[in-house]
Amino acid sequence: MTQKELFESYNKQVYRTCYYMVHNEADAEDLCQEVFISIFRSDWERVEHLRAWIMRIAVNRCLTHLKTRRRREAKDMLVQSQYRSTDQEGKALDLLVEEREAAEELATDMMQLPPKIRAAISLRYMHDFSIADIAEILSIPVGTAKSRVHKGLKLMKLIMSKRDYVIHRSNKGGCHEAYREPTEAAIKP
Asked: What does the alpha-carbon distance between residue 31 and residue 62 come to, in Å, rounded to a whole number?
């Protein structure tokens, strides 16, 4: 496999991981490039589990970036992030708008998770890695990987239940959003 083939095979997965970790397109692109620069400077041809190794590098870069960003934001409280999701071509406009809104909501919800838990959830549900693979990628015990995925799911359920919105149409055809407290039926243990 050449460097070009390696890049073409894994760049979308690496970018998606970076984007869901840092929730910023520009940072995700930069991190993706950094990941592949690291890979190409290393002896990647001899790596046995290439995909898991690449994802480990991506997650570690993202975690380092998040730590740095958190320190920077602590010093300067005025820094704000802009959030956008990526487009997909060839779909009906209504479907595209709905998917974009859902992706933005998911990304916003994911950003509320602690970085280590966000990494485990992203690897499990965005990339379909097994718990054992996640443990290997993150260099943690299997039990810790299970715990992070489980805790992440519980936190996501709580976050999503708090964001339960209902859209009401007014008589004039306009719409507005009203926050509705989640009912007990909506929050099942």
From this structure: 7
Average pLDDT estimate for 102-109: 75
Which strand (E) or helix (H) includes residue 165? strand 165-169
d(CA 42, CA 93): 44
Residue 183 CA from chain centroid, whole number: 28
Element (H, E) at 177: strand 175-179
What pTM, to 2 d.p., does this model score?
Answer: 0.50
Residue 152's nearest CA partner among 187, 107, 108, 119 is 119
The residue length of the chain stands at 189
Task: State residue 141's pLDDT score.
Answer: 93
Query: Is 12 a residue whose pLDDT tops 90?
Result: yes
Task: Return the amino acid letter for 155.
Answer: L
- Scanning the structure block, which residue is given the tokens 């487009």? 87
The confidence score (pLDDT) of residue 86 equals 40
DSSP 102-149: HHHHHHHHHHTS-HHHHHHHHHHHTS---HHHHHHHHT--HHHHHHHH
Mean pLDDT across the chain, nearest whole number?
76
Q: Which H/E stretch holds residue 94?
A: helix 93-111
Name residue 33's amino acid.
Answer: Q
